[in-house]
Amino acid sequence: MVHKGRTLGLSLTMNFDPALEIPGELAEAVGRWYVFNHRHELLLVDGMVPEQTAWSESIVDQHLLGVESPTDHSEANAGRQRKPIWAARGSEQLSLGPGSQFVSLRESFTILDESDWIMAGRASQILAWAADHAFCGRCGRPTAPMAQERALKCADCNLMAFPRLTPAVIMLVERDDGKALLAWGRQFPGRFYSALAGFVEPGESLEQTVVREVREEVGIEVDDIRYFGSQPWPFPNSVMIGFNANYVGGDLKIQESEIVEAGWYDSTDLPPVPRGRMSIAGWLIEDWIQRQSN
Question: What are phi and psi of 32, to 5 degrees?
């Protein structure tokens, strides 16, 4: 996501180039390994993603994600070299050394820095895609990875399966009096409010999805829909596309299957909400708060 000079999901000091084959000069290089167990939890060592040259013990699947390299040769990057980035799944026999723990991808959000968490999400999705498409969805025959692109191909009927992304919109609705609409969704276990969000349906534009989702979830109408930014979101395979929208009319009538409570809030009197950090919901709300203070 790029918004007001900030880049979400990309390291400001490192470049990442997706790759399917490791460059020869990096064949023995120390790499960063995003290792998941059979419960789809991420391995951290002393709170960090482990780095080593290889990981052959108890690994049942691994994929090269790409190569990371410094964007410059400043003092901050002194001594940092190009390194391969790996996604791997361990078997139930994967042994843990001192300081090791497995955490859920959601829990790692509060532990890892921004670029590491985004890469963990990428690794998680690639591993899930490979497991889900080990066999052809059309004829049931085994698939094999293609050499030139990230795809699995059936040798029998030639059906190709690419990693899938499900687009979802997230929108902060504002009234003329400066108040914003915030809702407590049923997906949150505790009292926690955020912007409305929903998945794009076949045949819809992103703007049409914004209008429909707001109408379905809280019963009001919006217009003046403006693009804010986007962010990869691996729950499970989404890209979140953020918008600002203006309230047009209607009274709040929540969709009880989705929403616990919704209301109009002033920036100086907020319920528990995401503020900045690594989620696009937090940056939508932070941007609105900053505009209200100007």
Answer: -95, 130
pLDDT for position 75: 53
Q: How far apart are CA 208 and CA 216, in angstroms?
A: 12
Give bridge partners of residue 14 from the DSSP assignment: 70
Query: Residue 11: what pLDDT?
Result: 41
Taking the C-alpha atoms of residue 234 and residue 175, their distance in angstroms, rounded to an integer, is: 31
Q: Which amino acid is at 196?
A: L
- Tokens 């203070």 correspond to 293
The pair of three-digit structure tokens given for residue 210, joined into one six-digit string: 């914004």
The answer to pTM > 0.70 is yes
Q: What is the pLDDT of residue 2?
A: 42
φ/ψ of 161, rounded to 5, equals -120, 120
Residues of the chain with pLDDT under 50: 1-12, 76-78
CB 231 within 8 A of CB 239: yes
Give pLDDT, residue 71: 72
Q: Is 112 exposed, middle or buried (0-12, 13-18, 19+ CB in 10 A)?
A: buried
